[in-house]
Amino acid sequence: MTDAARPTGVLTETEVLRPGRWRATPAARFAAEFVESPIAVVALTVTLLLALLAVFANWITPQNPYDLMQLDIMNGMQPPGGTTLDGETTFLLGTDEQGRDMLSAIVFGLRMSLGVGAMSTVIALSIGMSIGVLAAYFGGRVDSVIMRVVDLQLSFPAILVALILLAALGKGVDKVIIALIIVQWAYYARTVRGTALVERRKEYIEAASCLALSHSRIVFRHLLPNCLPPLIVVATVQVANAIALEATLSFLGVGVPITEPSLGLLIANGYDYMLSGKYWISFFPGVALLVTIVAINLVGDQLRDVLNPRLRR
Amino acid sequence: MRKSTLLCAASLAAVLASPVAAQELTIGVSAEPSALDPHYHNLGPNNAMRRHIFESLILQDEKQRLQPGLATSWRPLDDTTWEFKLREGVKFHDGSPFTAKDVVYTVCRIPTVENSPSSFTVYTKAIADMQIKDPYTLIIKTDTPYPLLAVEVSTWGVLSAMANGVTGDIGFSRDGCTGTGDYPKTEAFNNGDAAIGTGMYTFAEYTRGDRIVFERNENYWGDKADWAKVTFRPITSDGPRVAALLAGDVDMIDKPPLQDLDRIKSEGFQVAQGLSNRVIYLHLDHEGEPSPGVTGTDKNPFKDVRVRKAVSMAINREAIVARIMGGVAVPAGELLPPGMFGSTPGAAAEEYNPEAAKKLLAEAGYPNGFGLTIGSPNDRYINDAQVAQAVAQMLARVGIQTQVDAVTASTFFKRRNQYEFSLYLAGWGSGTGEMSSPLRALVATPNKEKGMGGTNRGRYSNTDLDSTIEMALATVDDDKREKILQQASGIAMADYAILPLHFEVTPWAFRKGITYVPRTDQYTLALGIKPAN
Amino acid sequence: MLVYLLRRLGQSLFVVAAMAVLVFIGVYAIGNPIDIMISPDADQAEMEAAIARLGLDKPLWEQFFVFVGNALQGDLGRSFVYSADALGLILSKLPATMELALLALVFAVFIGVPLGMIAGLRPDSLAGKTIMTGSIMGFSLPNFWQGMMLILLFAVIFKVLPSGGRGDTVDVFGIPFSFLTLDGLSHMLLPAINLALFKTSLVIRLARAGTREAALQDYVKFARAKGISPRRIVLVHIAKNIMIPVVTILGLELGSMIAFAVVTETVFAWPGMGKLLIDSIQLLDRPVVVAYLMLTVLMFILINFIVDMLYCVLDPRVRLSEAKA
Fold first, then answer.
1. Do B323 and A259 touch (CB under 8 A)?
2. Which residue would you say has higher pLDDT here, C11 or B359?
3. Contacts of A174 (CB under 8 A, 6+ apart)
4. Which value does ipTM take for this structure?
5. Which chains reach chain C with 3 or more Cβ–Cβ distances below 8 angstroms?
């Protein structure tokens, strides 16, 4: 980036604060490194496909399993490939006891699971990020109090905290999201604080301070963006964790309501029927859940390798 | 020489012992009693378990009909005085003789049990006075005519006064008896010290969460028990309980999940099933305006009997029984199954008629229906949440856009008791086995002083019905009372005060070679398990 | 050092107190236990009497002070349902959970370490890549579903292992254990595998990272130069060094394993502490839930405290920085 019209030796804010390596189209290099692993590419494709399925669930499924008008208990318990009484509709993956087409239920369940996972992650990320970066920037007492709370929270298994929270809050999609945010924010706070502590000592922040920029501008425009890479890795893994946790909570009976089942709840419903050989009610949603979580985790794994400078060859 | 004969004899005994081993019985039960103290917790598993050790003056048979127990006969002398003739020659497990004093001692102890989560005082509070005419004749007085006395007497087991250190006379008083000394604590029953009754079995071992073991009472006053040793093993999860039966670890289990019955039968086991005293019903909000779970209208549609009737007609009870309950239930047209005291012969379930339901809704001013949320527990009754969803499905078909709010029982009951539901699914088991039980609890106007309407969380109120129920509860003559109860039930059903869905059928599964007669009270009793011949 | 220790102790006590308040309020906000426990025949008068017997008619703060007063004397309350000491009830379930967790831990180490070392020594081989992808699977499998599939496979389809329960036990010093009988072991196998799988993945990753690092260390190069057989280098020199982080992390993870046993115990009907917790939540047996949570709080705080103390002893930098702060 050379600009002859400008006198040399005077740098703009952008040039001071965005070190040179970022000029070489980081996105392109990032993409190139990412596609080095074929597994990761497959995983990314699968993740995107699942997301698309979830978004367009209403239009692509043969049945809306949340619409009671479309269910008929007379079609209940059909094995995969079974049909309605008049033989017109075929249930590729069978039905549950309510006559809910499992294929449709899985796609809608996927939407619920992904939605809850993504939503809680985004909110927890925003909260955790802000708190973490503040702790790092201000340091001292603020930092030590915040980090004590974070340590305390992280020392308890997420499953126990969420279980008790939901037992007290009651059922509902909104409540599950709240519980997931509460158990997740601390991860982000700690990650951001760690990176921010390192970044804070770098020259560009000192430079920003010299330019007499406001606290909030330094924190949010300069410090935060540079803490993003590790955060992205954590967030990817956390989406997968959130989905798994939501499924577990729904399985234990404190998650989403039964009329809008997530993948976890579909599996839980099938638990009662498993010993009698009606495997399809819990098996297929489980496969869908597994594929989703594995795909996201594989993407996260590759992201970690690409974004982690220590492993860079 | 001598030694080898002994050895021979020992091995012979071992061979002969195998038929004796067959006299042992192991039962896997779905619910564990919270204590062996017969008066600690008035709840199904406790009541079933105590019957092995402690007997009542009056027994309830499989259909909850009253049979002579420790009392050979009983009769009202006048409206408020009853005479009980007690059985002679009965001995407690420690050898002390059974007399009227033991009954008085028992009634004295019931209100004193510490920390009792659900006390038996509900079944003794009608007793105003007790007099021992002679050791085998007991007079019980009530404040008002009280026909339920005999039934209530059948619900509590009798302790021995002598075994618990009482030597002198006992003075009965409702506010605390005299001469009883210290009552045994609940722990004393659990470790066996105080587990001394007159029952067919004696206490052998109790390890919470693992096993309860009884042995045959060789000195029992009636026919001796069929089994020398009976072990109850609590296996609360359905799958493992079924697996334990199939693996031969237990001889019998209660409440096998309906979806597993076919598999159990196909593996050579037997299933006995019988109608229970439990009705699954829908209760409607008769008071809230607007009602909390109703959307799309400011009014409470359920105040209109046409809407209540429409809801009832919209439900295909046959389909629910066939598809959700696996055929193991019976559609209900009343609150008590046919054949029990006070049920109406020929009371049929509402006919499924969605067209008529739609018409009624239109007449009532809801041609496009309204929005509704049904409350239901999801772990209390057999397939409860699934039934609620099926109901929702059927209501959606007649235009009532329905959601299901199914939660764990603890949360459900709390919210129900705060009137948060416009329509909720729940169940009622009739402990006394007569129609007065559901009517008094579910549809009588709530009244704390009279003990009426305790579970009427739809706040239904009908003075006509109230006075009929009260009349029944003051009629000591059984035939007359049954007629009045049938009449009361008719009033409630005609007004669609509450919508019965189905009666639960209780299954038991067991190995070949034994039989069990199903009980309406759903109890699993070793007393009723017989070797098949 | 002493100042630091005292301050840390003070912090821990404060945390215990804060958690007691939170846990108590959280648990006592749930439902109404009387509705679950009382006989349906009971009328309102009897309900009120039962509420009074259990002390639930008192205001929340009063119940809390009664709880704190008793807790300070080591009494965490009486179970509403069983009228038995809540702490005793939980401790009676502890052996079942502990033996399950320990067996799972053994599985995790004996499967995880060798696999992790292979992946670490040959990161680019097919085996190494398969192991690493497999470990992601292990992380990703939803614990309860994986348990159900184990039951489906081994109990329903092949019928070789029991689907749940604890099986025969043998009393050792009056405590029942399953692992000493064949029947008990067969009951333990599936739940232990289920519990172990997640931790196995963790161990694989730790062992792989440790191996990769150790392989580049001077002492390994030196050993190699000395002509020590590669087998011995791997089995003795590398293995020894990666065991330190593995053991440390697993020690810390034992707590979370006991917590995570909630799910496994529910799926396999294993009569341990986790199953008791879930049952007690459903029955609203508040004293048991509170006692369980307080016990967990104490356990985690104790673990953290010990770890901090050890760091303090081992690493003078922590000591200095904390002393200044």
1. no
2. B359
3. none
4. 0.78
5. A, B
